[in-house]
Amino acid sequence: MAETIGFYEAQGRLAIAELVLFTPCFFGALWVTARHGFHRRMGWSYLVLLSVLRLTGASFWLAAVRHRSRPMLEAATILQNIAFAVLFLCMLGLLQRINEATSTAVLAPRLFLLLHLPFVIGIVVGIVAGIDDGNVHADPSTTNTRVQAAVVLVTAGFVALCGVTAYLVVKRRALFKSDLTLLWAVVLSIPLLLVRLVYSLVGAFSQDPAFELATGNAVLKAFMAVLEEFVVEVLYISVGLKALVIQSSDFASSSFFHRRAREPAREEGTSLQEIGFATRP
Question: Residues 97, 182: contact at Cβ < 8 Å?
């Protein structure tokens, strides 16, 4: 009983820490998304979604601690499973933003739509696994298999994103100078995302109870999951505050990519209007 109380207390303290960390992230992400626009193709809205999921999940954790509620614990776990995949969608959103503002079509825009699939499917499978985990009649082995499948899907998507990042680094001369900061931010985030991924992989495929997301060691979760997500989000928000703003009409125009392909890479001192970028006052 004392061990159970200790578990709830540790998870409760971690949940409070998450609320403290991700509340300012939410407002920062909201500001960045409002600055760049809420249109789908930009990907900045994933930062807002990540903060919302983390804050909501932490709230459910606190409710579970206070009421010793298993359903609340399961709800928190499901939200954290979703946040895990959304974290990598944030990386995908930045890479898409970098690619679609290049002076030449470095990668086909449809590639980024396809890269959403492993993460979206992983989210769905993770939700189903979380629901099954709360069902006393569900087969534990089936639930565990679904968790493993979700993590594998996210891992495959992450490997693909690393490949895209490496390709953009090689082709960085085709990028505009202002977008290089976004690219290096993605590069810096890769080790942190890798640690976060390893935490989930070990939890899904090993028998070590310390890595269980719902009932595992709170210290491991803090330093291998929560901290990485927080640092990555702060990094992306920071570069988003300085990134060039592109109007949604640019993406909506069928001639946008053709126009960018005919334009030389921006040199220092060239105005944004001269290269066809729309800016906000």
Answer: yes
